[in-house]
Model the fold of this input.
Amino acid sequence: MSDESPLDFPLDYSRARTGFLGAAEEAGAHLRTFVLPGHRGPHCGELCVDTAYLGPPDPEKLLVTVSGTHGIEGFCGSACQTRILLREGVAKAAAGPATGVLLLHGLNPYGFAYLRRVNEANVDLNRNFVDHDTPPHNDAYEAVHRTLVPPESAEFAPGELVANLTALRGRLGPQRLQEAVTRGQYRHPDGLFYGGHAPTWSRRVFETVVAEQIAGAAHVGYIDLHTGLGERGVGEPIFRGGRDADAHQRARRWYGDALTASEHGTSSATPIVGNTATAVADGLGADSRLTAITLEFGTLPGPEVLLALCADTWLHRHHPPADAVRSDLKRLIRDAFCPDDADWRGRVLQRAREVFDQALVGLADDK
Done:
């Protein structure tokens, strides 16, 4: 058992993984591990995607939770999975004759270990699930790239960057700037929200899990855990799919008026392409149902989060990973995606418990 208090999120990737695996073994979960080839963590440990499953061999209904799609956001997601679903026994209690619970931990283990949202190739995994032969082009990003990633910047100049970002925000407006930056782009490998030029290792692992551990279920409740958008400490359920006609209304029955949708303009998130829920929807049979959300926990105001992302991009362009991860600049991205704040962490755990319960009740009520 961990000796950390319930509000202590793991301090690093290694401890997060150890805590998750230990709790899963105690719960009697079936474990599966995928090791990232060619890379090690800052302390030379393996970098892995782990899954833990509780329930019958062929569940009719399945709750799936995912942490660490955006690396550093895994500190929050891992805490929610480990403490609520495993240590509090929610997953085991939910598993029954027809229902299973699948926890996927650290989908982007490199970013998790090196305190980045992106993977080892600067790819945003939640923009990688597209057809890379004909990737969607984001024209709006072209106008902001040089401000976000200055071509001549041997030294990090936060004052100049803040001034340039403020001017850009004033020119475009906050909504258009967010849309331009976060939608996903496929032409600038050194840029922000880069979706890659091919399927990443994490994507291939995820698609394997979908095919082998998710696809057989008749109804999947899917929760991808994220941080960095919205009101501080508020867990916003953002609709991400199913494709049957009742999917959105079903999600509203589960999550109530708190449910938002980027495509309807009601969410803190603007529309994105290539997210993980796409792969789940693609992998399910025609008669299966999917009720998918992103559970997004707000941290800092948008301009501060964007500054942290720009700083981290600069840091990893100019320093090797082992040096970058120890830089004082990492405090910016930690504050933006995993605040060292007991009140925030307590609110996160309470809200995650509520949403997990809503999903399990929704699955149970599904006929």
